[in-house]
# Entry
Amino acid sequence: MAIVATNLKKGQCVDYQGDKGLVLSLEHRTPGKGNALIAATVRSFSTGKTKTIRFSSSEKVEIVQTDRQKLEYSYADPSGYHFMDLNTYETITLEENLVADSKDYLIEGMGVEVLFVADAPISVSVPATVELKVIESSEGIKGDTANNPTKPAKLETGKTIQVPLFVKEGDVLKINTEEGAYVGRA
# Structure
């Protein structure tokens, strides 16, 4: 199915010059002269690399049919990351490269969205914010309150982020998964 480039949306999958990819972001540009352009940042399914593709506003873009399934994260082992379909109770194992940056936010029992193209898993999307427990954090320096100071804290998934000085071990924090940043206490 082909659509006009101006109707393209973030999260859609496109087929451009024989390479299929996921649209990560879109920017509508109107130069001083000429027609408007749509600049799409696309992550290739085959290479995993991102590139910016420019489409003229009237250009047709081929959309790839996809299936998004809600799965529950179970566990990880050397063979990969295991997810369960809550409708059929089937377990799906994904390789580490498909899980990519999401692995820093996965905890047992978490619901995720897995994108499938032609019955093959392509990517994993975690919620925009997750709640994770702090397992290791140094003490803040008393009196150091100028310029919004932060300190490193290690989360239960192994990811280390910068947090305010008042955060201590055992605290449960809200984390923005897109930026990998502290949002607040849960």
In short: The chain has a mean pLDDT of 87. Residues 67-125 form a domain with the OB fold (Dihydrolipoamide Acetyltransferase, E2P) fold (CATH 2.40.50.140). The radius of gyration is 20 Å. Helices lie at 96-99.
